[in-house]
Amino acid sequence: MPEAELIDHAGLDSAVYLRIYLLGLKIFVPIFVLTWAILIPVNWTNNTLEHSTETYSEVDKLSISNIPHKSPRFWAHVAMAYVVTIWTCFMLKKEYETIANMRFYFLQSEKHRPDQFTVLVKNVPPDAHESVSEMVQLFFLVNHHDNYLTHQVVCNANKLAKLVKTKRKKQNWLDYYHIKYSKNPSKRPMMKTGFHGLWGAKVDAIEHHEAEIEKLTNQIAEERTNVMNNPKAIVPAAFVSFKTRLGAAVCAQTQQVRNPTLWLTEWAPEPRDVYWKNLAIPHVSLTIRKVTMGVAFFFLTFFFMIPITFVQSLANIEGIEKAAPFLKPIIHIKPIKSFIQGFLPGIALKIFLILLPKLLMAMSKFEGFMSKSRLERRSASRYYLFNFVNVFLGSIIAGAAFEQLNTFLNQSANRIPEIIGIAIPMKATFFITYIMVDGWSGTAGEILRLKQLIIYHLKNIFLVKTERDREKAMNPGTIGFNTGEPQIQFYFLIGLVYAVVTPLLIPFILIFFGLAFVVFRHQIINVYNPKYESRAAFWPDVHGRVITALIVSQVLLMGLLSTKHAAATTPVLLALPVLTIGFHIYCKGRFEPAFTRYPLQEAMNKDTLDRVREPNLNMNLKGYLENAYIHPVFKDDDFDDEDALHLDHGAPVVPTKRQSRQNTPTRSRTSNGSAPSLPEIVEEKHKP
Amino acid sequence: MPEAELIDHAGLDSAVYLRIYLLGLKIFVPIFVLTWAILIPVNWTNNTLEHSTETYSEVDKLSISNIPHKSPRFWAHVAMAYVVTIWTCFMLKKEYETIANMRFYFLQSEKHRPDQFTVLVKNVPPDAHESVSEMVQLFFLVNHHDNYLTHQVVCNANKLAKLVKTKRKKQNWLDYYHIKYSKNPSKRPMMKTGFHGLWGAKVDAIEHHEAEIEKLTNQIAEERTNVMNNPKAIVPAAFVSFKTRLGAAVCAQTQQVRNPTLWLTEWAPEPRDVYWKNLAIPHVSLTIRKVTMGVAFFFLTFFFMIPITFVQSLANIEGIEKAAPFLKPIIHIKPIKSFIQGFLPGIALKIFLILLPKLLMAMSKFEGFMSKSRLERRSASRYYLFNFVNVFLGSIIAGAAFEQLNTFLNQSANRIPEIIGIAIPMKATFFITYIMVDGWSGTAGEILRLKQLIIYHLKNIFLVKTERDREKAMNPGTIGFNTGEPQIQFYFLIGLVYAVVTPLLIPFILIFFGLAFVVFRHQIINVYNPKYESRAAFWPDVHGRVITALIVSQVLLMGLLSTKHAAATTPVLLALPVLTIGFHIYCKGRFEPAFTRYPLQEAMNKDTLDRVREPNLNMNLKGYLENAYIHPVFKDDDFDDEDALHLDHGAPVVPTKRQSRQNTPTRSRTSNGSAPSLPEIVEEKHKP
Predict the structure, then answer these.
(1) Per-residue pLDDT at A453
(2) Which domain holds residue B286?
(3) Could you tell me which residue, A349 or A76, shows the higher pLDDT?
(4) Quick check: B52 contacting A, CB < 8 Å?
(5) Å between A287 CA and nearest CA of chain B
(6) Residue B658 has pLDDT above 50, yes or no
(7) Residues B562 and B622 in one domain
(8) How far is C-alpha A488 from the chain's CA centre?
(9) At residue A593, what are phi and psi to the nearest 5 degrees?
(10) For labelling, which of A41, A450, B25, B432 has a CA lying 20 to 30 Å from the CA of A18?
(11) Is A639 helix (H, G, I), strand (E, B) or coil?
(12) For B240-264, what is each residue's pLDDT tens digit?
């Protein structure tokens, strides 16, 4: 499947996501060839390690450790560091350029989509005499009178959405009991009313649920009228639509009033991408939330080991004996004892690490981002930072992160890279194992979807009650940018750090990138189901993290070489991070605006083309835009879970051929049928 | 004179400049009262210094040095640090708000000014088939067709301006010789053709100059046609004017094309403020220039002492004897010897410090800023940094800056504030002397304008040849933002650092601010002649530097207290810089856009008002804007020096009652005569 078709099929996000793996290959293949051709012989033809008293492995003989102090051979490593930097930057720039152009091309080739005409206006100032809707209309009629078309106010429908969700659950239970009853008509199904059906009075399940649903339906109707009519349920924000893309682009990029914290305008996310819950967060609290989460993340990163160590100290034989002496006879039974001793200490950490992405996502949600793509991007960058501190630094300098923090605060600034630099070559074998265990087997597991298979079957046994439940359990999910991308970035980091120090590691990285590319390409084409389309808005983050990895590698090499008494190389190496930062600033200025702004010329071109192609567009536009950004809960009650809540109702704007399984076929009118229709294949594949 | 009248008379820039002194008073008067009421008694009622073996002065007895280690009294200082921070931030916020509002009010009350309708477009992409002018017209007709009015391309007229300047000089000499000849008709004035008339063939001066002027006139005419017709003389930049302020505001705030480095738009500086020379600098070289100057400034700040020490080592008796043995008999004459010994070593440093602002200004010009206000702002911030490193840190930790740099690099990060903190209280007397010598006497000298008087008389004796020369020599100049503001900021820094440590110093600061306010108010009303009006665009810089001073003071207090074994106070103090940075970020977001952007609502309001008040404005607007941004050299040849070159031709837009002395009276048509006309008074005052 060529790239154009892939974009058509799975969206730009997925296609660009695959390019991260390709970028890895493009960067590391030439580095692999060069370092093996040059550095391996340079390192090998020494005998420092043989003459030293330290123990060493064959891997070390091929690494920079094998070169004696003050050797002029270090210049080869310095030169290679330059080559690595220049090549990486060159590839990064080319890729950034390509992806910026892909994004523009995608924007130009898309059909009308509401987000192209719409601006999200936040922090509309309160007014005693006028409603938010009137304020918005008046303001835009006055200040954008040529282009203003319509607007939709945002309601705080979180409570309503919750009620609808509860009703759906009850409905599901009702269906389940109906099935149960039809299978065994002799016995009315009974249930307990207490917590999760564990205790309480026994009642007839079908009657109970029918009554509950009845009650909820009334509550929903009430809440719905309340939300619609109560001015207090209207959030001071609105989606304002314009007649032209130009009008929207102008509004999104300009300051509206004197006070730059009022009437904030930004390019609206596409309807599927809106995270409705957060639209109701008052704007003033956003800064506080951001700071709180920043501090919380700092403590999470550096001090998460403290509670885990505490749990671990409890979770051993003596701890349990002390805390609960009555368990003593049980835990001294042989198999239980060995289970506790062997498994329990690690399990707290393991559980924490499994929950971490969810925790980070919850933190991002608390921070108040208004689109799912932003949520995932923020979670991804935090996950990367966490991995950097706790996996990368944590593996190199043994010791918990808060101990490192203490060491670093009490060390002079230029000792820090040295401390880490010395440890780097010694850890090469550890990271090779890490790549094989985490990278290779993880990727192989992905294609088998073992985890999903197990979870699916577990769900099937314990949770699935009706057909709808089975469908939900079968949802193949998405790429998972918030966990997947930081993982890739971690391999970029290891690869760049070890490229010069221990070139032996590079092929392991290459195999990872190659394998992952093939696997994820397959998964994207056949399995995943994208939740939204952000038009590759994540690329600046990807680029920035590779640059970070590059700078880290340069600083660590500098630290390492300064301990090798190769002082002459330091000033030469010092130029590298400076140049890299310069390169980053250049790229930021040159390419980043492509991912945040809609240039007027592009908007104008597309408007003009539209006018020529569809002269009566403007008449239809209002009807099309009027309800594009309505809270999904108002469209109909018939939605399942949170995902469906946002996925279903973006239907008129679905840009890809892939249809959500929960979508009705009538909604695929935007497909133009040029590619083989894959949803059926997927449907087939996933039938249990 | 109330403030409104002052703005009317001298412009917003000057009025806001005065408010910096007022801000100083507002911040330090309550601090003075509080610290003297609380900290002085707290410090005085100890006898640590009396019991110690160190020498101490009475000033030290009133300072924090007099408090014994681990004393709970330090909490008074910590509390006071909080009070100082909160009060300073409160005043800063109030002031920022006031000035942002003043700026908006000024913008709303101004008459039409070309910069409100105009956008400076930079980096117009080259095209093989079309000229820059055609490109600009086409682009804006297509993408801003509703609002585009006219445009003026920018010519590289630097050579022409130079020729015109030379001609003016020769003309002046010719006038001089004419006067000389008319006074003594018996003798034709003669001159030598060589360098500055020092050697070469003797010729008749009048004839020679007439011939030269003739030649130059031809050259100018030739160059003028060249610039007008040669497409290569057209710089890829243009001033694009719009029909409405809204159109200009939209264009200035949006990205025009895909490539964010092409068709760069920004709010045009007012015509007087344009620094024409730099418009011809190719856009690509700007980054390189910026980096070069950044590096150059770093070396200038940290290593300027090296060449000066070298000069000083030469400029002593032995050095001169060695370098030029033939001078030996002369330099051993008693008065010459003592002059050399006493004066010469310091003179290199003195000359350097006098030339420093000019050097920094030249660096800013090299960096390529396009308006004089930006040039002055950049010079000011560099001058402040230089003073901070070399005067403030340099006085506290004796030793040249590059030695400090070395110390800091080899120290752990949290030792640095301690090193400086310990030294702070000891240097209080030095800074008191500094305030008196530099601040008080400098301000007193300013009102007497002694320096200017001396320079004027020196010029009168040596340089003035004609009436025009005398006028030039009499130019009272401007406030000198690039040197004046960093000086004020230095007193903010000292004041904030010593507020808690040695409160005795505060009244000296107060006297400086009071004195300077009175003096500069007088000078602004009666003497200075503003070159341009940037509408207080410098306030974000002023605000930022006070914040910097605040943070420096907090960090140093933390360092000082940690050496006093008052470890319990450190975490409490640690919150201060964090809070201050938070406050700064808040202010930046809340107020800074007021100084860089023109909100659409404001532009729209003003447009609407205009349309009501002057319905036929649009017809006149084109004629008014068509030539507003023409290079002054094209308007007429009749200009004097560089200042006049930019000052003269902004006449239709002069916003203040004060007229440049070089302006002809007919140009004062924008004055509306509501305030007493002061130019005459000034004129009177300066008649020799």
Answers:
(1) 72
(2) 282-367
(3) A76
(4) no
(5) 9
(6) no
(7) no
(8) 12
(9) -55, -25
(10) A450
(11) coil
(12) 999 889 999 999 999 999 888 889 9
Give the DSSP H/E element, type plus range, for residue A169.
helix A158-183
Q: Which of A600, A605, A606, A608 is the best residue to mutate to test the B interface, defined by the most B CB atoms within 10 Å of its own CB? A: A600
User: Using alpha carbons only, what angle is made at residue B494 by residues B489 and B497, rounded to the nearest 5 degrees?
Assistant: 120
| DSSP 8-class letter at A112 | -
Co-location of B182 and B91 in the same domain: no
Cβ-based neighbour number of residue A69 at 10 Å: 10
**CA–CA separation, B106 vs B121, rounded Å?**
25
CATH number of the domain that residue A124 is part of: 3.30.70
Residue A659 has pLDDT above 50, yes or no: no
CB-CB neighbours of A413 under 10 Å: 14
Do B575 and B456 lie in one domain? The reply is yes
Distance from C-alpha of A320 to C-alpha of A333, rounded to nearest angstrom: 14
Taking the model in full, what pTM does it have? 0.81
**Count of H-run helices and E-run strands, chain B:** 34, 6
Are B452 and B550 in the same domain? yes
B452 and B576 co-located in one domain:
yes
As a whole number of angstroms, the distance between CA A324 and CA A331 comes to 11
- Is residue A238 within 8 A of residue A151, CB to CB? The reply is yes
Neighbours of A63 (CB within 10 A): 28
Indicate if the pLDDT at residue A327 is higher than 90.
no
Is B276 a member of any domain? Answer: no
% of chain B residues with pLDDT over 90: 26
Instruction: Provide the β-strand partners of residue B155.
Output: B234
Tell which wins on pLDDT, B145 or B461: B145
Short-list B103, B157, B7, CA closest to B629 = B157
Q: How far apart are CA B503 and CA B641, in angstroms?
A: 49
Q: Specify the amino acid at residue B555.
A: V
Are B340 and B465 part of one and the same domain?
A: no
Q: Does B593 touch chain A (CB under 8 A)?
A: yes
pLDDT score of B409 = 67
Mean pLDDT, all residues of chain A: 81
Task: Read off the tokens for B173.
Answer: 């000499």
Is pLDDT of A121 > 80? yes
B591 shares a domain with B483: yes
Task: Kindly determine whether residue B412 and residue A409, on different chains, have CB atoms separated by under 8 Å.
Answer: yes
**Structure ipTM:** 0.79
What is residue A339's predicted lDDT score, i.e. its pLDDT? Answer: 72
**Count of the separate structural domains present in chain A:** 3
| Residue A523 and residue A416 share a domain | yes
Over range B607-629, report the average pLDDT: 81
Encoding tokens for residue B451? Answer: 């320096």
Predicted confidence band of residue A81 (pLDDT cuts 50, 70, 90): very high
Please indicate, yes or no, if residue B21 is contained in any of the structural domains.
Answer: yes
Question: Are A604 and B143 within 8 A, CB to CB?
Answer: yes
Which residues in chain A have their CB less than 8 angstroms from residue B411's CB? 412-413
DSSP E strands in A505-595: the ranges are: none
The nearest CA of chain A is from the CA of B94 a distance in Å of 15
Plot region of B324 (φ>0 → left; ψ -120 to 50 → alpha; else → beta):
beta
Neighbours of B57 (CB within 10 A): 12
Give the pLDDT of residue B240. Answer: 92
Probe site for chain B from A144, A250, A291, A570 (most B CB atoms < 10 A): A250
Q: What is the DSSP letter of A652?
A: G
Residue of B nearest to A105 (CA): B258
Task: Using the predicted structure, report yes or no on whether residue B549 has a pLDDT greater than 50.
Answer: yes
CB burial of residue A97 (10 Å; 0-12, 13-18, 19+): middle
Comparing B404 with B359, the larger pLDDT belongs to B359
Query: What is the DSSP annotation of B415-470?
Result: GHHHHHHHHHHHTHHHHHHHIIIIIIHHHHHHHHTHHHHHHHHHHHHHT--SHHHH
What is the reported pLDDT for A403? 65
Q: Which of B145, B250, B251, B263 has the highest number of chain A CBs within 10 A, making it the mutation to test binding with A?
A: B250
Q: What tokens does A609 get? A: 């083309």
Please check whether residue B688 lies inside any domain of the structure: no
